[in-house]
């Protein structure tokens, strides 16, 4: 049989080499390069700590007070609800002094007793070789306002001696006791976060018309709790009395900055500390001047009002 002849090899030819690759030109920059006179920004570096920091803050009656940061921070041991404790917190806020706050449980007897020999609040503690441990709210207020280590002195004037404010406070005291004390048990305040602390408070804090000695000696724990429940249930009856008193108070407040003409004084330290608790009462109606005073002082004190937890 015939064997086919092999196919001839494919022809070969030389083709010119491909042209060398040239990348496309880069797109134009989307920003303008710095000019020859451009100076790069200085890298941020925190300033060293100062005893009086630079930011200014509006202080009592508009005084610009610098933030005072002592080398050793004072610590105040307080109950959040206690008006005597709030006096100290307000004074520290007006002075713009950085400090620590420690909330004691209401049934904590050991802590204050170890510091001052008895159960008391507020307590000021400044550690150190020449440290300070002090009680009595007005003494603590004067300690800070008289001491140049804590900023300008004398920004809180002495009490004015106004009889109208003290008479107002006395007139509303029974109503406020019936409204405040049951609410302290309900609001979730730090010193009452455990049942033991609430029971301790109820056992020692009478409600009108009881005197303290009778309350403590003659009523059982169950009876005291029932009286607290009954007082809370009287809210609708007590609110008109409170709101009428707040109408009267509106006429006594001088301005949002101070209750007495002439600037912040000890009148404010006491009055605002007591008014703060009224913001825990849902339905309390503050006049516009009183409301502005409450909120302005709360801002200066860095001490919140209770409107968000009112009941």
Report on this structure.
The chain is of the alpha+beta class and 311 residues long. It has helices at residues 83-95, 110-116, 137-145, 163-186, 195-204, 212-218, 221-233, 235-250, 266-278, 288-301, and strands at 52-58, 64-68, 75-78, 100-103, 123-126, 132-134. Strands 4-3-5-6 form a four-stranded mixed β-sheet, with helices on both faces. Helix 1 packs parallel to helix 3 (137-145) and helix 4 (163-186) packs across helix 7 (221-233). The chain starts with 51 loop residues before the first strand and ends in a 10-residue tail after the last helix. Mean pLDDT is 85; it is low at 11-19 and 27-57.
Question: What are the main properties of this structure?
Answer:
311 residues; single chain; four-stranded mixed sheet; alpha+beta
Provide a brief overview of the structure.
The protein has 311 residues and is of the alpha+beta class. It has helices spanning 83-95, 110-116, 137-145, 163-186, 195-204, 212-218, 221-233, 235-250, 266-278, 288-301; strands spanning 52-58, 64-68, 75-78, 100-103, 123-126, 132-134.
